[in-house]
Each structure stands twice: as C-alpha cells, then as structure tokens.
DNA sequence: GAGCACTGC
C-alpha cells in the first residue's frame, strides 16, 4: 500500500472534555461551563453554583447543594400527599429483575440529589435542569415528582422531540415502576398511544402536545410539564415553551387578573425545562430568571485529539485517520461522521479499496453506512456484532449523533461538517429550502465525541484544529429561525394566536412571517385582514402542510378526495417512496417505469400506491416485500402512508368531507387530481422558458426540475411542484405538468372559497 | 443530472 495512506494526519492530543474524574479536568471544563454534580460535596459544586446563580438570579444558596441526601427514593412519607402513586409493591414482592432495576436507579448520578431537586421544583414554578447525558434525568425526574406527590392528581407530561425516545422511555419507566405500560406510565406519539385513566406519567412527542393545545388550550390535564431536550430547540418545543409561559400565567395567578376570571387557581402548573447543553441561561431568562440546577452525567472518559492543522479534504483526512486507528489502536469499532450520503458512499469505496491492500496480519475491515435515505435493512447492518478478527467502520450522517446509538463504538472520527436545511424566505415567489454543508456546533461536536464513550473509554479524532473548535457556535440556530412557518401560523390562528405576538425565545424575521401569511392567503386559509377563514379552519384540522390540506379541501370540488388523500399521505410520509441506490440508478428507473405517469410525479405516486395496495390485498407479507424490493420502492413509506391516510379520513369525517363513492381512474379523475393539487401548489408553479429552464409564476427565480422527477426531461409549458431545494442549483421536486390556463384561475378560486 | 436529521389527537 502507498505509504501516504498510512501517514497519520497531524494530530494533537488534548485532555478529555468528558473525563471529569480529576480536578484538573474539572477546571478545564469550567472554562466553558461549570457542571455541578448534585451528588458531590460542597466545595467544588458550591463555588460554581454561586457563580452561576448570582449571574442568574442572585440566590447564592442552593437547595440542591446544601442538603445532605441520606434519604433515598423510598421516602414517600416526606411528602404531603402521595396519592398512592409510589412504586407499586416496593416492599417484599419485587422480583429479582425489578430489584436490579431499583438498584440501578439508585446508582444514577441524579439519585443522590433527589430530595433537593424535589424541593427546588416544589418551591419554584419553573425549574431549569441542566444535565449531561447519562445523568438519568429523563427517566428519574418524572418518577421523583410522582413519588413526592408534587403532581397532585394531575398528570406529568414529559415531552421528547423524537417518537422512539418517547416510547422507549415510557417502556423503561414503566418497568422501573414495576407496572404494565399504559397503566401508571404511558406514552402518546402519532399513530401510537398507550395510556389510560390510570396514567400519571406520560411521555409524548412535542408535536403531540402542541396538537393537544388545540383542543385543550390550558393543558389542564397536566400539573407538571417537563420539556426534555429543550436545547435541541425544535420548532414545536419552542412553540410549547412560549405557550407554557402563557398557560402558567393563567393557571397560577389569582382569578382577578385582567378580567379573565377563568384562571384556575386550583390547578397550578409546574414547568421543568431539561437541557443537555450550555444554553440553560437562555431558558432561565425567558422564564423570569428561573433557577438552574446542574446534574453531572455519567460517561466514560473520551480522549480527544484535534488536528494540528486544518484539513482541506475532510473525507481524505477521515480515511487516513481511520487507517491510523486500524493499524495503531487496540480493537474497537470506528464511527465516522460525515455530512451526507455522497461523501459516505465515496469514502466507503475508498476505504474498501485500501483495506484490501492491508497486510495479512491486520484485521479485516467491515464497512457499514448509515443515513436516513438508506433502506432500513442496510442501516441495521451496523448493529450486527462485529465478527472476530475484524474491525467495523461505520460511516454515518447526523443520524448517529442523536437518533441512533450504535453499540461497540470505541473510536469516533469527526469531520466537523454536517448538512443543514435552512429556509430562505422571500415574499415574492415563496421561499425555498437550502441544504448546504456547514461546520457543526460545539454541542454537536461534544455529542459526537460522546458516542465513543457509551460502553467504555474511547477516543475521538476531530479533523479540525482546537482553534476551529473554539470558534464554533455554541449551539445551532433554533429551528424556528430556519424553517417555513406556514403550518405553525395556521395552527396558531386556530388558537386565536398570532405568531408575531407570541412571546417566543427567538423571534423569526419579518420576511419569514410575511411569506407564510402570503401563502396562507393564496390558499384561502386567511382573508385580507389575516383572519382565519372557514376553509382555513378545515385545513388546520389536518396534520398536513397547508398546501396539502388545501388540496384535500379543494378535491371535494373535483370529486377526487380519495386519490388526493393517497397522494398527500405518501408525500407527508417521513421516508421517501422511491429508494435511491446510487449504483443501481438505471435498474431502479427501469423497474419504476410501470408507474410513471406522463403528467408527472403526483400521479406517478398515485399509481405506485394503488399498485401496492392491490398487491397488499392479495398477497402475503413476503411477496409484498419482495415486490417493493424489486421495484426499488420503500415499503415503510407505504405502511406509514396507510396510517396517515386513515388519520386523514377521520379528519375528513370530522370536518364534513365525504371520502367514499368515487370511481377510480380515468382521465377525468386525473384531471381533478392535478387541479386539486394545483389549488394547494398555486404558489409553487413555474412556466417553461425558451432555454428549457423554468421561471416562477409568482417570482423571478429560475428553477430546474430535479433529476429524480418523472418528468425531468419533458418540456411541458407549466408545472406545479411540492417544494424547491437549493443544493447546487434550485431544484423543483415533486413536479406535475399543469395546463397553463388552469392555475391562473386558481387564486381567484381559492379566494372565493375563503 | 441528484438525497442532513426530526415531527403532526
């Protein structure tokens, strides 16, 4: 093998940011932020707390730190009203498994601070809990609150940005409480709910509780709401945090406030915001300087190496570093973080190529790739145990940063890059998303590093200098500043709220709001005075992008509700329908040709869905799977779309849209479908230009049809599209041909409907 | 001529 391959990238050893075992490390860490272990004794912790608290609210004492925590979790007796909510059969009847769980619980870093923590929450309306990964905060805090009686008779909600987190946490906590899932401990995520009258601790996605706002604006079923992973600043978390501030004001204040005699003083609300990273003060300030409590985590130490000089080619640097690890370091799998699929696939090829030239005495290399667009069976290969005398090398996107934990990782190679979607708002022609490679943030770097220390001590190689690390932003821009607000604004309108008046932690800029309002007006969802129209109220009832709920509402006119539901169900599914395996593109295109509709992607999707439903009705699971595989279709998309469709049918019934009684197929139906979609996508339309590109009808932007589209090569006079995405060029995706004459009248139609 | 990650009673 060429020597250059094994020439190590210049790397500089740095002390660990995670190995907080020694004082030396602690001091270093303090430079960025001081973590106080609630289980730790005074001196170390108090100092930092003082500094922190004086910055925040001037309180120098801390209950968390000032108490000695002799009492363990069984101390229900210390609370006024336990309400039978303690762990069931805690005495005597516990099985060995349950005992082991209790033992584990009491060993968590957070366990020793339990009483102090409860006291803080009892005394404050809002508590900010800053905890490292592995502290146990997400599973334990809700149980502490329940066992202490703080929740009275109400429920404790714990919100999560991701569905899997919500469900698996509920499983875990139900086991710890030694109860059946759905009794005392439950969860609610879209399409899946396990809860009952008995449920006191409920894990839900943030989106779920935001939806719940629409039917219960005061969230009166919950007496404690714990917002977890708040640092991720998802759009829905931000909306929730803003609403909670309002709700708490209404629920906790005496009823004389502003003539709103409805304030329910008998049902006050407590808020706990949990964050894993450095920006706790922002939450604290937002909630009137709420107290911040720190909990140290438990993580195996990870050695961090930074590159001595910046690496121009991060993929090449990653490869050299990998082989450096492979030849010099003890066994253990390697995880490489890369920005996207393209880098992953090309690096995989390079690594495999060079791995073949390894000397015989070196272990062989097994590469796995992981990214969201990849088939799940492929992604899951990373979970297979590494065969003896082999080293696994996993090439992954951000998917492995938070969503998926891969066991056995000892080494992390961090390129310091990721791709991020950013919405570019423009009033004319509508905004569009950009998807560009950029530097990661500090908290993201820490998260990636932490992936090497899940099971034992590890090593992280950062392919950027320490200086570059120091120059990184602390955390990313909140999503609310990076995405289209059309759906959120519509949903808020049904609550009588205007986004621009909402007390948000970060306020989106004017263009983003104006662009969303314009879109909503085009759809007929709001009128000239920005007031919600009856059609808009219908649209908001659907868990869909307003463009698509508008299409559903419009489809009634064309007697084609059913096929439009099929299409929007597929389009709003989280995974793509058409699988893209880079080196089998021609085969995939060939296999899909039978679904392609000359009028474009929307009807192509409809054809595929109908074909699948036919197969699904007649054949076994394995036949179905094979059929999907053969046609390069993602069966998960179909399965999810069927769930979504069922949900949409229910909403249709509720808002008085009749789904039944339409005949399938025919030109008339096709026409109606395109026209319905055209109502929703009127703002997303463009005319053909002489040079073969398209120009927006409502803006000046020149766009191209995405190469993945079924009508990419066709030069049709006018198109509608699902969205625009800027990568190398501005591409329109999800494109259909539409008669020029039609969509000029659409706007007028939408307004009339309004 | 091409694909960061999530989510919705």
TrEMBL record:
The residue ranges of the Helicase ATP-binding domain are 118-296
EC numbers, comma separated? 3.6.4.13
Which GO biological process entries does UniProt record here? positive regulation of transcription by RNA polymerase I
Protein origin, superkingdom: Eukaryota
PROSITE patterns per the record? Answer: DEAH_ATP_HELICASE, HELICASE_ATP_BIND_1, HELICASE_CTER
Which InterPro entries does the record associate with it?
A: DEAD/DEAH_box_helicase_dom (IPR011545), DNA/RNA_helicase_DEAH_CS (IPR002464), HA2_WH (IPR048333), Helicase-assoc_dom (IPR007502), Helicase_ATP-bd (IPR014001), Helicase_C-like (IPR001650), P-loop_NTPase (IPR027417)
**Lineage of the organism:** Eukaryota, Fungi, Dikarya, Basidiomycota, Agaricomycotina
Question: Where does the record place the Helicase C-terminal domain?
Answer: 318-496
Q: Where is this region: Disordered?
A: 1-93
- Pfam families cross-referenced by the UniProt entry: DEAD, HA2_C, Helicase_C, WHD_HA2
Recorded protein name is RNA helicase
């Amino acid at each position: 093998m060429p020597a250059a391959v094994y020439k190590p990238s210049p790397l500089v050893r740095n002390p660990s940011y995670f190995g907080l075992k020694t004082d030396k490390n602690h001091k270093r860490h303090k430079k960025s932020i001081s973590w106080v272990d609630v289980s730790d004794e005074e001196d170390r912790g108090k100092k930092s707390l003082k500094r922190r608290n004086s910055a925040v609210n001037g309180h120098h004492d801390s209950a968390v730190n000032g108490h000695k925590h002799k009492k363990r979790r069984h101390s229900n007796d210390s609370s006024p009203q336990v309400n039978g909510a303690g762990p069931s059969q805690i005495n005597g009847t516990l099985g060995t498994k349950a005992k082991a769980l209790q033992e584990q619980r009491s060993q968590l870093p957070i366990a020793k601070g339990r009483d102090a923590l409860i006291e803080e929450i009892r005394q404050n309306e809002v508590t900010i809990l800053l905890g490292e990964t592995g502290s146990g905060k997400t599973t334990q805090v809700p149980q502490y609150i329940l066992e202490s009686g703080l929740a009275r008779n109400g429920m404790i909600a714990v919100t999560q940005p991701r569905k899997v987190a919500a469900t698996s946490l509920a499983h875990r906590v139900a086991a710890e409480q030694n109860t059946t899932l759905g009794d005392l401990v439950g969860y609610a995520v879209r399409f899946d709910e396990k809860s009952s009258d008995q449920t006191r601790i409920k894990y839900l996605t943030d989106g779920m509780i935001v939806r719940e706002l629409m039917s219960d604006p005061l969230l009166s079923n919950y007496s404690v709401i714990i917002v977890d992973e708040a640092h991720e600043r998802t759009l829905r978390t931000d909306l929730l945090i803003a609403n909670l501030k309002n709700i708490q004001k209404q629920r906790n204040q005496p009823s004389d406030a502003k003539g709103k005699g409805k304030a329910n003083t008998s049902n006050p609300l407590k808020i706990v915001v949990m964050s894993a990273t450095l920006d706790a003060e922002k939450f604290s300030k937002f909630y009137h300087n709420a107290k911040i409590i720190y909990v140290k985590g438990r993580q195996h130490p990870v050695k961090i190496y930074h590159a001595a000089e910046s690496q121009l080619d991060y993929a090449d640097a990653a490869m050299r570093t990998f082989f450096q690890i492979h030849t010099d370091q003890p066994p253990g799998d390697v995880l490489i973080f890369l920005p996207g699929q393209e880098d992953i696939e090309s690096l995989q090829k390079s690594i495999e190529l060079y791995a073949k030239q390894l000397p015989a005495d070196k272990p062989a290399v097994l590469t796995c790739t992981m990214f969201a667009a990849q088939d799940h069976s492929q992604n899951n290969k990373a979970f297979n145990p590494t065969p003896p005398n082999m080293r696994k090398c996993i090439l992954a996107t951000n998917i492995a940063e938070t969503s998926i934990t891969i066991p056995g990782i000892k080494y992390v190679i961090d390129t310091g890059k990721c791709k991020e979607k950013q919405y570019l708002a423009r009033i004319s022609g509508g905004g569009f998303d950009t998807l560009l490679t950029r530097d990661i943030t500090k908290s993201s770097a820490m998260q990636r590093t932490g992936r090497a220390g899940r099971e034992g001590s590890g090593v992280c190689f950062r392919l950027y200098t320490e200086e570059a690390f120091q120059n990184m932003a602390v955390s990313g821009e909140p999503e609310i500043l990076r995405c289209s607000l059309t759906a959120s604004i519509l949903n808020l309108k049904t609550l009588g709220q205007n986004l621009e008046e909402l007390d948000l932690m970060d306020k989106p800029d004017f263009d983003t709001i104006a662009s969303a309002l314009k879109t909503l007006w085009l759809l007929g969802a709001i009128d000239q005075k920005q007031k919600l129209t009856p059609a808009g109220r219908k649209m908001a009832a659907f868990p869909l992008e307003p463009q698509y709920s508008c299409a559903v509402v419009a489809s009634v006119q064309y007697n084609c509700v059913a096929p439009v539901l099929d299409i929007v169900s597929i389009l709003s599914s989280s995974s793509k329908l058409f699988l893209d395996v880079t080196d089998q593109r021609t085969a995939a295109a060939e296999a899909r040709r039978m679904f392609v509709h000359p009028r474009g992607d929307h009807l192509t999707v409809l054809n595929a869905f109908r074909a699948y439903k036919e197969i699904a009705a007649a054949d076994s699971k394995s036949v179905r799977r094979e059929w999907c595989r053969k046609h390069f279709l993602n069966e998960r998309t179909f399965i999810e779309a069927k769930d979504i469709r069922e949900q949409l049918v229910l909403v249709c019934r509720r808002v008085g849209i009749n789904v039944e009684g339409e005949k399938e197929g025919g030109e008339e139906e096709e026409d109606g479908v395109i026209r319905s979609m055209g109502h929703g996508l009127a703002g997303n339309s463009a005319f053909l230009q002489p040079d073969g590109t398209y120009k927006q009808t409502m803006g000046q932007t020149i766009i191209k049809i995405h190469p993945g589209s079924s009508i990419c090569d066709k030069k049709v006079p006018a198109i509608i599209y699902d969205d625009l995405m800027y990568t190398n060029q501005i591409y329109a995706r999800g494109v259909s041909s539409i008669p020029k004459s039609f969509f000029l009248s659409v706007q007028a139609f939408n307004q009339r409907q309004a």
